[in-house]
Specification:
This protein has about 425 residues and is of the alpha/beta class. It has 4 domains: about 170 residues, MoaB/Mog-like domain (Molybdenum Cofactor Biosythetic Enzyme, Chain A); about 45 residues, no CATH class; about 80 residues, Molybdopterin biosynthesis moea protein, domain 3 (Molybdopterin biosynthesis moeA protein, domain 3, Beta Complex); about 70 residues, Beta Barrel (Beta-clip). Helix content is about 15%, strand content about 30%. It contains 6 helices and 27 strands. The strands form 7 sheets. A 6-stranded mixed β-sheet has the order 9-6-8-7-11-10, with no helix packed on it. Strands 23-25-24-26-27 form a 5-stranded mixed barrel. Its EC number is 2.10.1.1. Pathway: Cofactor biosynthesis; molybdopterin biosynthesis. Catalyzes the insertion of molybdate into adenylated molybdopterin with the concomitant release of AMP.
């Protein structure tokens, strides 16, 4: 990936707009990613897992390409009993079947031309003298060319995530490569003089709990996270240091997730750093709790598509709410995946809303039932470690037991979201 350069300008931006609605912020993030998605590439099948089809997958031939036996048995022509005049194994091209004869045939073998029936081996009777008899079943015991698809048929549309099953379908339909959207690269930059990277917390210092986990979440969302894109540890709380760290990460990553510095306190420099890099705010504060101060900025790249900075608040739960609110739809857009509607769950117990803001409530989901987790304060990770995602309580409402609510799942499975 070529390193990017950025125009620089200085000045602290002043935010006067009200916070954006949570659903609108997700839509803005998706649209921004979709507009900036990279050109497709042809990926070898072994390297395509987890990427997204950039154009429809079509059948190169009829599927199957020739009549294929679905059983072990005998291909016969005419009335029996039949003399067995040969054997057809998978991978061979048989001669047409002569009238009044049979050939032994294996599952997966090409059916000889002029075959009238295939008698399963368990229904056949081998007679003395090499004759075979049996009753042909009423159903055809082979697949005709085009049973699954005709040559040129669309098998899957563009935008479908590539799974092992998609790779297998591509292979049997004759493809050696797949047209895919390459994975966006992502980096994490953590701000904070108070953060430790080893040992127990104490004496005014706390352990960084987000720097170690965010790259794994990003990989589960389909991003590439090459080692060494960000610095080895938290960045000090000064404007020059934070500007330099973000700029360095943006040279090699399409998406940079920063942690901390999204408020307007004395050491919150992210907005000024983005201004210095020529950033344009797409989302600046979201009416959601936790995570109110999250932001998304577009950084122009002369001669190329923009790159993105997602500003995550420093509280752990607020940062993970930002992950499902802005990062997940942004990466879906960059990957060319279809915009995914949120699934629903049934709340098992009452839960309070957060006034005029959307409330993202950490829940554990089993069989479609969502139970709020304990130890779920915005600075806590204990509850989040047991959560499957966040139930979405709409502004101005509370959640009642039995309510069916949207939920934003966490990407718990490597390489994709549930």
């Amino acid at each position: 990936m070529a390193a990017a350069t950025f125009p620089r300008r200085y000045g602290r931006p002043v935010t006067t707009e009200p916070p954006m609605a949570w659903t609108e912020a997700r839509a803005v993030a998706y649209a921004a990613g979709r507009a900036a998605r990279p050109e497709p590439v042809a990926a070898p099948l072994a390297e395509a897992d987890g990427l997204t089809l950039a154009s429809p997958l079509t059948a190169r031939t009829d599927m199957p390409a020739f009549p294929v036996s679905t059983v072990d048995g005998y291909a016969v022509r005419g009335p029996g009993p039949w003399p067995v005049v040969g054997r057809v194994l998978a991978g061979s091209v048989p001669e047409p079947l002569r009238p009044g004869t049979a050939v032994q045939i294996a599952t997966g073998a090409m059916v000889p031309a002029a075959t009238e029936h295939i008698i399963r081996v368990e229904d056949a009777d081998q007679r003395p003298g090499g004759l075979v008899s049996g009753v042909a079943p009423p159903a055809r015991q082979w697949r005709e060319p085009g049973d699954e698809a005709a040559g040129g048929d669309e098998l899957l549309p563009a935008g479908v995530p590539v799974t092992p099953a998609v790779i297998g379908l591509a292979a049997i339909s004759g493809h050696d490569t797949l047209p895919v959207t390459p994975a966006a690269s992502a980096a994490v930059v953590v701000f904070g003089d108070e953060l430790l990277t080893a040992g127990p917390p104490g004496r005014g210092r706390i352990r960084d709990g987000l720097g170690p986990q965010l790259p794994a979440w990003l990989r589960r969302l389909g991003a590439a996270t090459p080692a060494g894109l960000a610095g080895p540890g938290p960045v000090e709380d000064t404007l020059p240091a934070q500007t330099a760290a973000v700029e360095a990460a943006l040279k090699h990553a399409e998406v940079v997730c920063t942690v901390g510095g999204t408020m307007h306190g004395p050491v919150d420099h992210l907005r000024a750093a983005l201004a210095a890099l020529g950033g344009r705010h797409l989302v600046d504060r979201v009416a959601v709790r936790p995570g109110w101060s999250m932001l998304l900025a577009e950084i122009p790249v002369p001669g190329g598509p923009p790159r993105f900075v997602v500003g995550m608040p420093g509280n752990p739960q607020s940062a993970i709410v930002t992950l499902v609110s802005l990062v997940a739809p942004l990466l879906d857009g960059l990957a060319g995946r279809a915009e995914r509607p949120l699934p629903t769950v049934r709340l098992t117990e009452p839960a309070r809303g957060r006034g005029g803001a959307t409330h993202l409530l950490p829940v554990r989901v089993e069989h479609g039932a969502a139970t709020p987790v304990r130890h779920a304060g915005s600075a806590m990770l204990r509850g989040l470690a047991r959560a499957d995602g966040f139930a979405v309580i709409a502004p101005g409402t509370d959640g009642a037991a039995g309510d069916v609510l949207p939920w934003a799942p966490l990407p718990l499975v490597p390489g994709g979201r549930p």
